[in-house]
Specification:
This protein is of the alpha/beta class. The protein is 39% helix and 13% strand. It has a 6-stranded mixed sheet, with helices on both faces. A 4-stranded parallel sheet has the order 7-6-5-8. β6, α7 and β7 form a beta-alpha-beta unit. α6 runs parallel beside α7, α11 packs across α13 and α14 crosses α15.
């Protein structure tokens, strides 16, 4: 029988059950992490685990067709199958960005398209685990009236959808005017109680933590380690999609930073169970206007929160990330790099990649801009296999795309803008314009 439990990341004695509203260590107040019974998991060989996961991948046997629940024993083995709330999350495209990568001198470049998921972001990977756990808690008699989160957009969309499927009320706190229209509409459409607060994400996070301290409101943000158990499967899936080979470098955008430690946790588990023999180098990309991890990296990992400024990469506009300690620990173990991108760099990088067939969200644009910088400096080389984790679907940010191509983004030259050409209903005018652009 496989088991998992919470334990303190600072090493305090004891473990705590997963199916209880607990987000911090009751002894020291630090964050928790999910600990698996690794000795029990070693009852299968590495080859047997790989065969099992491959046999389940994208198949129809419930719930294992989900790329998260196909790895159930490594994620949350104590969930009963009839309590799982799944929307076939994961299994997203690992896109060979051949033309774009070649232009940068990185021909073995791949984009993990996590936005090709039910609600359009990687947050689905974690939310399926969290909402399933809450559903089981309620079934077993615990009093949970609602699940709540603070969000810059994508978390609220995932929570609202999965909670709606489970029949559990959802409460989302959003910073007013700081999420895209599509991101705002998603939780509204799914029936969540949407609270638009006159503050930033950090302000929303402070309030939702107070709400979660009250009985009956369960916290869905990434300081809840159950979320990260689902998100860690992106590491396993990337390796699985390459027939269990490990890339050299992975670049991921960083905001609240739960995704960074989740990425490392997936590789830690694979290595501990003999599935892989090496680790990739992890690079975290931050927006220059919301860069507390970058500043800590440049200052010997001494962290100080910042006041995040308005950025096109709104989902990572976070100045006091909850998972900072977990992220730093992961980066130290994975020879990590932290780099930043300014607004022009992220907008142009997104547009440059779009010109080769992609359609990137601005947060992926931050990661691509960092990739371009590292390639120019020779810190990423043409012989390396590189993965950029694209965290959300570009269709959520059509306003960003439109404003770029119509040159309406303040302070940005938009050198790659491609505006529509307006013409009269006249064949000759159409013909002349085509000839001029041919």
């Amino acid at each position: 029988m496989y088991r998992a439990s919470f334990r303190c990341i600072a090493g305090c004695h004891g473990t705590h059950p997963l199916f209880t509203p607990l987000y911090r260590c009751p002894t020291c107040g630090d964050l928790l992490e999910v600990a698996h019974d690794m000795e029990a998991l070693k009852d299968r060989s590495a080859g047997a685990w790989m065969r099992l996961f491959d046999d389940r991948y994208k198949r129809t046997l419930w719930p294992y067709g989900s790329a998260v629940w196909g790895k159930k024993e490594w994620v949350c083995p104590d969930i009963r199958d009839d309590q799982i709330v799944s929307m076939d999350e994961g299994g997203t495209n690992l896109l060979w960005a051949e033309r774009y990568g070649t232009s940068l001198g990185v021909p073995d470049l791949w984009i993990k398209q996590c936005g090709n998921s039910h609600t359009g972001s990687f947050k689905d990977l974690g939310m399926t685990v969290l909402v399933s756990a809450v559903r089981q808690m309620i079934t077993d008699g615990q009093q949970v009236r609602a699940i709540a989160c603070a969000s810059t957009g994508d978390t609220s969309a995932a929570l609202a959808a999965y909670a709606a499927a489970a029949g559990i009320p959802a409460i989302v706190l959003l910073p007013k005017g700081k999420v895209s229209v599509a991101q705002l509409l998603q939780p509204i459409a799914n029936g969540a109680l949407v609270l638009s607060l006159d503050t930033d994400f950090d302000g929303c996070m402070a309030i939702v933590q107070r709400l979660a301290a009250e009985e009956g409101v369960y916290l869905a943000n990434s300081m809840n380690s159950l979320r990260l158990e689902g998100q860690k499967t992106v590491s396993i899936e990337i390796v699985q999609q390459w027939d269990w080979q490990v890339p050299d470098v992975i670049i991921i955008p960083g905001g609240n930073l739960g995704n960074v430690s989740a990425l490392g946790a997936g590789f830690d588990m694979m290595q501990a169970l003999g599935v892989v023999a090496k680790r990739p180098r992890i690079v975290v990309a931050q927006a220059e206007r919301a860069n507390p991890l970058y500043l800590a990296y440049r200052n010997g990992w001494n962290f100080e929160p910042v006041q995040a400024q308005s950025t096109l990469a709104s989902a990572i506009q976070i100045g006091n990330p909850v998972s900072i300690r977990k992220a730093i620990r992961t980066l130290q173990a994975y020879d990590g790099i932290v780099e930043q991108a300014n607004e022009t760099e992220l907008a142009d990088a997104s547009a440059r990649a779009d010109r080769t067939g992609m359609f990137n969200c601005p947060h992926t644009g931050v990661a691509l801009a960092v990739l371009e910088k590292l390639a120019r400096r020779g810190e990423i080389t043409r012989d390396q296999r590189v993965v950029v984790v694209s965290t959300a679907n570009g269709l959520k940010f059509s306003d960003f795309k439109l404003q770029y191509h119509t040159k309406q983004l303040a302070g940005i030259d938009a050198r790659l803008a491609n505006s529509p050409v307006e013409l009269p209903n006249d064949y000759d005018a159409v013909r002349r314009t085509i000839d001029q652009h041919a």
